[in-house]
């Protein structure tokens, strides 16, 4: 990556997005926390930052819907890379306290959902907060509250980890996208391409005809997701992720064929899968 | 509907789910608010209630994920009816206050998401709450807070409506399901059937082969949604809604054919679409 870039991420400091952004930026890059994913897209569109890292999908809870909606609405922002990190949750409380003294479990809604069975067994009520870092700050003030989040919170907020690896599914991972405005990428040999489409009507077989083209070109689809088009109940956009780069011959052919069959067609990017 | 049934819904009183449940129960039915959708499924499974009404999909924000997850996990609970209601949001504050004095907008995350553009123009921070009713109660205590929710909140919490119909998309509707344990339904002529499937592997064309069967039997799919199977990234369940009843000839045939091609197959119910 280039030097001295400004890179936006979903803050505040101490969140899993913070952990993710630290894995891919250079030391000379300046990282900038944002209160919402929408704000990140707005500033990237306005050239106020050079790059952004946003969560798009968790293996337990599914897609981050606001990320999909922003990818739909911001036409100049492209995906240039993807990577995933393991998400391990911990229960943290104030030093000197015990679990029996805890009256409420606080966190962002995603960790709360990813630890649903664990929380159910604790038999304590939950409180949804804007971020894990907000929840940790709250726990520093309220001695009967606990927070679910990553280990970074222990140091940053001077809290005690009383239970580790508490997510219901042990292989819990989150996929992040690296975004850039008006970006073009070259095939690397381990790429994916993401598109959004909408269909002309709801006739039987409408979506079937689209999938037929991918099958004909032997393209593997790694994810299909429907989201409301917001035009009313029963009208959907389809997010389709496939293996390959749009400059690969078979991907190039299939995209041309699909574009002719659908109402709305948009390429979100062809991007390398990187290991962190 | 029969008399003196106990019907569970997502409470507390004053939510859109409360509005929905009032549209379909008889006067003699006893309605019971629950703190979470998971609790509703648990009590229905344990025969503590006879029926339940849960939200499953909003035309702006998409599926209610916890409802899909519970439909996956509770094997004896079937969908027996569906209906939809328009969701009109309002901004409410304490009597005697003005919008300029408001410092924070409170609501459940779904209304906050459905009024994203409206809130963006207000330039005020938001606070996510467990329900619109919780948020309204908070506003009765905090004079600089406003709540987004339905009109019922004005009477119930003695608040003033200062803006109406504020959702970003005017045709905003939510689809609700009526659930019953071990229920069997008969075709009414305006039915839908919902199934969950998972595929054996991620070979190109795996999902295509499933859709082929629906196309061959001329069955219209009204919704396809993927959710993580929680077995790791890239493993999905597909929720498929189709027009018709499982006792209809073509639906019966297509379900048999699909069941043979997939790894996991579960019928969530064949159910009438009712108008409220």
TrEMBL record, chains A, B:
It catalyses: prephenate + H(+) = 3-phenylpyruvate + CO2 + H2O. GO terms for cellular component: cytoplasm. The lineage of its organism: Archaea, Methanobacteriati, Methanobacteriota, Methanomada group, Methanobacteria. The keyword Transmembrane does not apply. InterPro entries: ACT-like_dom_sf, ACT_dom, Preph_deHydtase, Preph_deHydtase_CS. Pathway: Amino-acid biosynthesis; L-phenylalanine biosynthesis; phenylpyruvate from prephenate: step 1/1. This is prephenate dehydratase. The gene is pheA. It comes from Methanosphaera cuniculi. One of its GO terms (biological process) is L-phenylalanine biosynthetic process. The keyword Lyase applies.
């Amino acid at each position: 990556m280039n030097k001295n870039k400004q890179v936006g991420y979903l803050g505040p400091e101490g969140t899993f997005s913070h952990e993710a952004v630290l894995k891919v930026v250079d030391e000379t890059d300046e990282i900038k926390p944002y209160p919402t994913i929408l704000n990140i897209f707005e500033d990237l569109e306005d050239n106020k930052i050079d790059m952004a890292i946003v969560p798009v999908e968790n293996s337990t809870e599914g897609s981050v819907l606001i990320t999909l909606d922003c990818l739909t609405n911001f036409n100049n922002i492209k995906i240039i890379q993807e990577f995933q990190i393991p998400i391990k949750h911990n229960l943290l409380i104030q030093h000197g306290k015990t679990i029996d003294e805890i009256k409420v479990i606080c966190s962002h809604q995603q960790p709360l959902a990813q630890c649903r069975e664990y929380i159910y067994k604790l038999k304590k009520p939950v409180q949804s907060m804007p971020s894990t870092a907000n929840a940790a700050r709250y726990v520093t003030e309220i001695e009967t509250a606990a927070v679910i989040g990553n280990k970074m919170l222990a140091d940053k907020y001077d809290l005690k980890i009383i239970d580790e690896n508490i997510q219901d599914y042990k292989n819990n991972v989150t996929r992040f996208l690296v975004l850039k405005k008006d970006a073009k990428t070259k095939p690397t040999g381990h790429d994916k391409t993401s598109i959004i489409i909408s269909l002309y009507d709801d006739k039987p077989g409408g979506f079937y005809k689209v999938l037929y083209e991918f099958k004909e070109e032997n393209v593997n689809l790694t994810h299909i997701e429907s989201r409301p088009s917001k035009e009313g109940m029963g009208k959907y956009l389809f997010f389709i992720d496939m293996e390959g780069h749009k400059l690969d011959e078979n991907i190039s052919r299939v995209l041309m064929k699909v574009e002719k069959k659908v109402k709305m067609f948009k390429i979100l990017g062809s991007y390398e899968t990187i290991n962190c």
